[in-house]
From TrEMBL:
PANTHER family membership: UPF0229 PROTEIN YEAH
Positions of transmembrane segments: none
Pfam families: DUF444
Similarity section: Belongs to the UPF0229 family.
Species classification: Bacteria, Pseudomonadati, Pseudomonadota, Betaproteobacteria, Burkholderiales
NCBIfam families: PRK05325.1-2 (NF003707), PRK05325.1-3 (NF003708)
InterPro entries on file: UPF0229
Name by which UniProt lists this protein: UPF0229 protein QRD43_02395
Residue numbers spanned by region Disordered: 47-111
Biased composition (Basic and acidic residues): 47-61, 70-90
Length: 426
């Protein structure tokens, strides 16, 4: 029996999607490395696009069979002064020829790389393919009302553009029938009575006053029926649209960073890379994300992204000021019942000695009960009092994590360690 299989999978207008997926799988390592480098020059919010990925042409080459020179041939070599007929010329060593354009020319121009555009979805899929929100912090996503317009039948009030003509005329017809039904029934009876009186008039002349009265009543009824308006304002019907709440998921990401004199540009760059990774990761799980930047030295301040990463300060460090401001902003603008709250803190670990204990208390009592997850990254190797206090907290609270990253190449492994899927290899 002949069997036929019909593939009804939707591939949209992109009929070559299968080839593209095979290409992405084949060059996965090069693409992953290109994506990793792509975040270096971007801002945290500048992630709503894909990336141009360059793959060296040599990495796209495939093995082929080549045919060397063989057989008996007579070749005339122009300008030959070393050989005569009958001499044996050895084969070139290496076993392969040199294709045209395989090396740089005298002008210094080499072969171009293969360039293709990686969409935002592919970009994020490659970057976070084996990561997940920690199961210990996974809870039901908050549902917050966003309003969307939906049809809700018809109403008697509205704008002319929303007028439903057919519905209005149908209502007008029903109204005219309802208001005129009794009058038409009475008119029909009077007309039958008048016809009977007119037939009996020769035999009964005394019916003439009755005929005149009947004719007058018929005239009045016809006038009343004609007075019923063809279209009345009460007949008008307008399309009605109402706003209904639509559940959506949204999150807020708090970025806390020490900007005191001990935090140089290289350490700020490490922090920026971690914040970018976290923001990118959250966009895969939430439809709407707000980002709040809090910088601190002895005092904390909410700033924009430019000032957060590039403004410099001098003086000491009081980390608790940033945590106090974060808790205040949450209470004022981001209700935990409506927002999924995430915190990311970056510091070199330097803090006023008596303030580190207060930081741990603020996190334990104020911040962590409101957060889905809180990650602390120290961009310095030395373990100072802040690190020691946070270590105590990490042992007690499952959705608090802390790591060190002192080199650029450590940021990505640290991030993957924080958000790896359960059961995945480290």
């Amino acid at each position: 029996m002949l069997q036929q299989i019909i593939d009804r999978r939707l591939s949209g207008k992109n009929k070559s999607i299968g080839n593209r997926e095979r290409f992405l799988r084949r060059h996965k390592d090069q693409i992953r490395e290109a994506v990793r480098r792509a975040v270096d020059g971007r801002g945290i919010r500048d992630m709503e696009r894909g990336e141009e990925v360059h793959i060296p042409k040599k990495d796209l080459s495939e093995p082929v069979f080549g045919h060397g020179e063989g057989g008996t041939r007579e070749v005339v070599r122009p300008g030959n002064r070393d050989h005569v007929k009958g001499d044996r010329v050895p084969k070139p060593q290496g076993g392969q020829g040199q294709g045209q354009g395989s090396q740089a020319s005298d002008s210094g121009e080499g072969e171009d790389d293969f360039v293709f555009h990686l969409s935002k979805e592919e970009f994020m899929q490659v970057f976070f393919e084996d990561l997940a929100l920690p199961n210990l912090a996974r809870t039901t996503l908050a549902e917050t009302p966003e309003w969307k317009s939906h049809r809700a039948g018809f109403t008697s009030d509205g704008t002319p553009t929303n007028l439903h003509v057919v519905r209005s005329m149908r209502g007008a017809l029903g109204r005219r029938i309802a208001l005129g039904m009794g009058k038409r029934r009475e008119l029909h009876e009077l007309e039958e009575r008048l016809a009977l009186l007119l037939r009996e008039l020769p035999e009964h002349p005394e019916h003439k006053p009755l005929i005149e009265d009947t004719e007058a009543r018929i005239a009045r009824l016809k006038g009343r029926i004609e007075a019923i308006p063809f279209l009345d304002p009460i007949d008008l019907r307008f399309r009605s649209r109402v706003k209904v709440p639509v559940p959506t998921t949204r999150a807020v990401m708090f970025c806390l960073m020490d900007v005191s004199g001990s935090m140089d540009e290289s350490r700020k760059d490490l922090a920026k890379r971690f914040f970018i990774l976290l923001y990118l990761f959250l966009t895969r799980h939430y439809e709407k994300i707000d980002v709040v930047f809090i910088r601190h030295h002895t005092q904390a301040q909410e700033v924009d992204e430019q000032n957060f990463f590039h403004a410099t300060e001098t003086g000491g460090t009081v980390v608790s000021s940033a945590l106090v401001l974060m808790e205040q902003i949450i209470r004022e603008r981001y209700s935990p019942s409506e927002w999924n709250i995430y915190g990311a803190q970056a510091s070199d670990g330097d803090n006023w000695h008596h303030d580190s204990g207060r930081c741990r208390e603020l996190l334990t009592d104020k911040i962590l009960p409101l957060c889905r997850y809180f990650a602390y990254v120290q961009v310095a190797e030395a373990e100072q009092n802040l690190w020691e206090e946070y270590v105590k907290l990490a042992d007690e609270v499952p959705h608090f994590a802390m790591r060190k990253a002192v080199e650029v190449n450590q940021i990505y492994p640290v991030f993957r360690d924080l958000f790896k899927k359960e059961g995945a290899a480290t």
